[in-house]
Amino acid sequence: MGAPDYGSGSLAEIVPSLCDGLRLPGFWDHLQFGEFERAIVVVIDGLGYEQLHQHKAIAPVLAAADRGPITTVFPTTTPTALTSLGTGLSPGSHGLIGATFRLDDQIFAPLGWGQEPPATVIQPEPTCWERAAAAGVHVAVVSPRLYEYGGLTGSAFRGGRYIGADAFGERVAEIYREVRNGTRSLVYGYWEGLDKVGHVHGVDSPHYRAELAIVDQFVAALTADLPEDTVLIVTADHGMVDCDVAIEVDGSDLMVDVTMLAGEPRMRQIYAQSGSSGAVLQRWRERLADQAEVVLRDDAIDQGWFGDVASDFRNRIGDVLALAVPGVRLVANSRDSILSSLRGQHGALSDAELLVPLAVFRS
Question: Is the pLDDT of residue 121 over 80?
Answer without folding.
Answer: yes
